[in-house]
Design goal:
- The complex is a heterotrimer of chains A (about 260), B (about 220) and C (about 220).
- Chain A is an alpha/beta fold.
- Chain A is built from 9 helices and 10 strands.
- Chain A has a 6-stranded mixed β-sheet with strand order 6-7-8-3-9-10, with helices on both faces. A 4-stranded antiparallel β-sheet of chain A has the order 2-1-4-5, with helices on one face.
- Chain B is flat and about 70 Å long.
- In chain B, about 80% of the residues lie in helices and about 0% in strands.
- Chain C is mostly helical.
- Chain C has a single domain, classed as Orthogonal Bundle (MetI-like fold), CATH 1.10.3720.10.
- Chain C is about 80% helix and about 0% strand.
- Chain C has 8 helices and no strands.
- In chain C, helix 2 crosses helix 4.
- Chain C is globular.
- Classes of the chains: A alpha/beta (about 260), B mainly alpha (about 220), C mainly alpha (about 220).
- Chains B and C meet through helix 3 and helix 9 of B and helix 3, helix 6, helix 7 and helix 8 of C.
- The structure holds adenosine-5'-triphosphate and magnesium ion.
- The site of adenosine-5'-triphosphate (ATP) has 10 residues of chain A, from strand 2 and helix 1.
Chain lengths: ~260, ~220, ~220
């Protein structure tokens, strides 16, 4: 391990799908224990950025470093890297044929080759962390959306990741279920888990984020502390977007 | 040993003479099967107890036994009861009865998909049950069944091949004759396989074309498998 | 006499069952391999698998059976009619089973693969532990249909002289002069066999079914 204050570092990332440049020259430093919230309009490349950081999609150019070691270098075992970077998806993506416990255990037994008994202990512990120990034997179809997402978080946490990526973890949830998921994430932030969160939940961003990044059309327009961004946005676009979001958010609340 | 291509060209006329019978059997089978299948479905869905059970019995019996056994039962078996049919009639009847049982299931699927609601609405404006069936349910159900049903001509075309075992003079029978004449069964059956492949492709393309032509806007294919 | 009748045809039943028990698993193994190649192989491999399926499914089984039979019991490979016929039926079925499994694999969806890769599974691990267990459940209903088709198609090996149900029925019909009874009995046995296969696989589907939604 190379001595560095950054857990995750991206340098000049560019991603192109066919003719479409999704983002260009994006650089990002993530400190240990930091919670970063990424906001921005739809189609801006937020999901793609997270997928690239996790090596689920290759970047076209640029470098990514995990604890100072380049993971975009040749010969790096991608599966090894992904164990250390947890990811939570918008649509949960639990393994439908496994119980909650099975979902959390399978990475431990099959990827980390942990003995089943030990894996079960750890999986139960992770489920407890997200408040779902009593649902261990339920299948995904028997869980509410909020519960499914919490299992997905437990599944990612079980791998003991260095950093967690969240891609709009609450946007597929009914309003009354959003809170329980955000609650778990908030608790993780307090435990100093390093997190990168794409979300439109401005309340969460304001309360929990150490830094907010505003992305638009494939580049980072502005970033800063919540106070800076909310109270003193430097760019007109940032102000406009925040205005729209809170308007939308307000509408949702009323429903 | 001559090359397969030469072989194919040399015996093509022979094989083509069997193609007429194959296509005739397919067309007859599809048509007879449609009529039988429609009758069976209506009996099963809307008929009284007796008719329903009769239809279920017919459908299950013909779907639950091999076509070849059905062909043999009609051709070799019926004379035992004093009914003698020619090879062609046995083949035609077996194919029609068999196809009818399968077509009944396609139709039933789409009638069920239309749902009770349409029947209810028709009865509510004073239609009798059978009027509702013919004017409201079937026009929708038949269209809905087209995509699934479009596979039936192709599968029946392939199915006709088994009737060569009672020596109906169709494609396979020709291939068998060529095989015994040339002592080259592999080339003979390969040649007939090529012909079947072409026929299957043509029938399939025709059905796809018909399917597109009959498509109604906003009417999705529930029956698609 | 009716007793003798049935017991004679019943001996053919064991041959029919044996043919099916060779052909069906063989078709499953080949079909699964082909489906995996189609879904996860490269461009050309996938094209080849698709062409195989198209050709095998475009030709009547009886024609393929003859081609394969003469290949498998010819000069190079010389199998008995039973083995040549059973293996041929298995090869024919593999194309249909490939289509079933291919559909099931696709129905599981890309998301499950993504989620598996995201916790650090390799592609093979994801296929083995996440995709296949789900695909198999989805495939059971169409597969049980294919199982009864193979059982029924096993009657085709009659044409290459394997003493299965139909061949026995024909022999009986000749010796007893009771063709309707002989072939009727054959039909009845097939009917029962097909019924049992369908029922058995329904039970399996029921047993392996995942809970569908919140109670
Ligand atoms: N696999 C792909 N192939 C081609 N284009 C893609 C692919 N995935 C995403 N894109 C394109 O990349 C762009 C950015 O998509 P992305 O999902 O990253 O946006 P986003 O910021 O997450 O938007 P949203 O808020 O709607 O989730 C979009 O224009 C999308 O069409
Ligand atoms: Mg997104």
């Amino acid at each position: 391990m190379i001595d560095t204050p950054y857990i995750l570092q991206a340098k000049n990332l560019t991603k192109i799908y066919g003719e479409n440049v999704i983002f260009k020259d994006i650089s990002l430093d993530v400190h240990k224990g930091e919670t970063i919230v990424i906001i921005g309009p739809s189609g801006t490349g937020k999901s793609t950025l997270l997928r690239c950081l996790n090596l689920l999609t290759p970047v076209n150019s640029g470098q990514i470093f995990l604890e100072g070691e380049e993971i975009t270098a040749h010969g790096v075992d991608h599966d090894q890297v992904r164990q250390k970077i947890g990811m939570v998806f918008q649509n949960f993506l639990l393994f439908n044929h496994l119980t909650a416990l099975g979902n959390v255990m399978i990475g431990l037994t099959k990827v980390k080759k942990m003995p089943p008994e030990k894996a079960k202990q750890k999986a139960l512990h992770e489920l407890e962390r997200v408040g779902l120990a009593d649902r261990a034997h339920h299948y995904p179809a028997q869980l509410s959306g909020g519960q499914q997402q919490r299992v997905a978080i437990a599944r990612a946490l079980a791998m003991d990741p260095l950093v967690m990526l969240f891609d709009e973890p609450t946007s597929a949830l009914d309003p009354e279920l959003i809170g329980e998921v955000l609650g778990v994430m908030e608790q993780l932030a307090h435990e100093h888990m390093t997190m990168l969160v794409v979300t439109h939940e401005m309340g969460f961003a304001r309360e929990v984020a150490d830094r907010i990044i505003f992305m638009e059309k494939g580049s980072i327009v502005e970033q800063g502390s919540p106070e800076d961004l909310f109270e003193r946005p430097q760019h007109a676009r940032t102000r406009e977007f925040l205005g729209k979001i809170s308007e939308l958010y307000g509408k949702k609340e009323k429903k | 040993m001559i090359s397969f291509f030469e072989f194919f060209v040399r015996f093509l006329p022979d094989l083509l003479s069997g193609m007429g019978m194959t296509l005739l059997l397919t067309a007859e089978g599809v048509l007879a099967g449609f009529i039988l299948g429609l009758a069976a479905t209506l009996a099963r869905t809307y008929g009284g107890n007796f008719w329903r059970n009769l239809a279920i019995g017919y459908i299950e019996l013909f779907r639950g036994t091999p076509l070849l056994v059905q062909v043999f039962l009609l051709y070799y078996g019926l004379p035992g009861l004093g009914i003698t049919l020619s090879r062609e009639w046995s083949a035609f009847l077996a194919l029609g009865l068999n196809s009818g049982a399968y077509q009944a299931e396609y139709l039933r699927g789409s009638i069920l998909a239309i749902g009770e609601g349409q029947m209810l609405a028709a009865r509510a404006i004073g239609m009798s049950k059978w009027k509702a069936v013919f004017y409201i349910i079937l026009p929708q159900a038949l269209r809905l069944a087209i995509p699934a049903w479009a596979n039936e001509p192709v599968s029946l075309l392939k199915a006709t091949s088994v009737v060569f075992l009672i020596a109906v003079p169709e494609l396979m029978t020709r291939a068998k004759l060529i095989a015994s004449r040339t002592y080259d069964p592999i080339s003979s059956y390969l040649a007939v396989a090529v012909l079947y492949l072409v026929l299957v492709y043509l029938v399939d393309a025709t059905m796809k074309w018909l399917e597109r032509r009959t498509r109604l806007p906003g009417f999705s294919a529930v029956g698609e498998r | 006499m009716v007793n003798q009748f049935f017991s004679y045809i019943f001996q053919g039943t064991s041959v029919t069952v044996a043919v099916t028990l060779v052909a069906l698993p063989l078709g499953l193994i080949l079909g699964l391999l082909l489906a995996l190649l189609y879904n996860y192989g490269g461009f050309w491999v996938s094209r080849l698998a698709a062409a195989y399926s198209l050709i095998m499914r475009g030709v009547p089984p009886i024609a393929l059976l003859f081609i394969l039979y003469f290949l498998l019991s010819g000069r190079l490979i010389n199998l008995t009619p039973f083995w040549a016929g059973s293996i041929s039926l298995g090869i024919i079925s593999s194309a249909y089973q490939m289509e079933i499994l291919r559909g099931a694999l696709q129905a599981v969806g890309e998301g499950q693969m993504t989620a598996a890769r995201a916790i650090g599974m390799s592609r093979l691990q994801a296929i083995r532990y996440i995709i296949i267990p789900q695909a198999i459940r989805l495939a059971i209903p169409p597969w049980s249909n294919e199982a009864s088709i193979v059982l029924k198609d096993s009657s085709l090996v009659y044409a290459i002289g394997v003493p299965e149900i139909l061949r026995r029925a024909q022999q009986l019909s000749a010796t007893t002069q009771q063709p309707f009874l002989a072939f009727g009995a054959a039909a009845l046995i097939y009917f029962v066999l097909v019924f049992l296969v369908n029922r058995g696989l329904d039970l399996l589907a029921e047993k392996t079914k995942l809970p569908t939604s919140m109670a």
